[in-house]
Amino acid sequence: MTNVTHSFHIVTPNDTNHEDDSVVSNDFSTTLGALILGLVFLLGVPGNLFVVWSIVARIQRRSVTTLLILNLACADGFLMALTVFFIIYLAKQSWVFGNVMCKGVFYLCNTNMYASIFLITLMSIHRLLAVVFPRRVSRRITRKVVRRVILGMWVLVMLISLPSLVFRDVRVDSDEKDKKRLVCAPNHTLPRHVRFQYAFETVSGFFLPYVIIITCYVMILRRLRQTKFQRKVRSENLILAIVVTFGLFWLPYHVINMIQVAAEWYPDNSPTREILDHIAKSSRAVTSALAFISSCANPVLYTFAGKSYIKQNGLAFMAKLFEGTASEQTGNKSRVLRNNGHNVGDSSNTNSSTQNGVIQ
């Protein structure tokens, strides 16, 4: 360990680079964060593995939404596996995994954060297209196209997560009792680096995706009000629940990001900056742990959505749920044609099938 300290940046009271941003500096925050992450790990890893198994092993013909949910479960499950590092970090109040893992683990966390929100955004966009242009969606948005879009999304999230790889290092920190410990902390050398990283993360990983999502659902509601049937289908409710859940659990994390950015606009000795810094430092561990909850919440949502299938289908209930959302479009279109007796090109038939045919 003595050799390790020479390879890391040592923080001293006079060091201008020191941000005192260690998430392990507050005993209550670290204890609460470790407990939350422990529960998240126990629920999230088996829950997301069950979702992946349900789709891969039980569903042969996967819809667009099912493919997106599969990727979301993979991203969430991988993120849940990484919580082991953070539980140990918070419990020991010291980073014991080295500098490479410090950069790598936080980079992978950011990558999966972006992947989760981008996949949810793609679900909302596809939902909009399926409602407004049902026939074009069925003809043009094939599984091959969807796979290419998903692959491009993964490449994009790996690129935009690079700041978390660059602005992160292991350093030696000292507490009030002059006790040394290793912390995996941001290594911003200039205030503009702090403003760039946290503002970029919140704008690209939360604000802009949610603007797109909200816009999609406003347009969907406007379209549904123009139709005769005012009925939501299971797929719409499921996607909307995923969107709301992600927003609720990630909002505190991004609020802390913005507080951190705001603090950097004030002089070093400003009382306002000290207050904002204290809020950010004391809340970072808890808000980060809450953000992790969103990744274990989706399997719970799927379970509630598919509870009507549990008694009849057993462990295959989740696969039945996803198959049900995929069959809503073709099933509802057939019923409209049978009940109305109109040609496919009839406007009333088109309106009915547009509303009910919401998923592929």
TrEMBL record:
Residues 47-302 form the G-protein coupled receptors family 1 profile domain. Residues 340-360 have a biased composition (Polar residues). It is found in: Cell membrane. InterPro entries: ATII_rcpt, Formyl_rcpt-rel, GPCR_Rhodpsn, GPCR_Rhodpsn_7TM. It is a multi-pass membrane protein. Keywords: Cell membrane, Disulfide bond, G-protein coupled receptor, Glycoprotein, Membrane, Phosphoprotein, Receptor, Transducer, Transmembrane, Transmembrane helix. The chain crosses the membrane at residues 32-56, 68-91, 111-133, 145-167, 198-218, 238-263. Pfam families: 7tm_1. Residues 332-360 are annotated as: Disordered. Belongs to the chemokine-like receptor (CMKLR) family. This is Leukotriene B4 receptor 1-like.
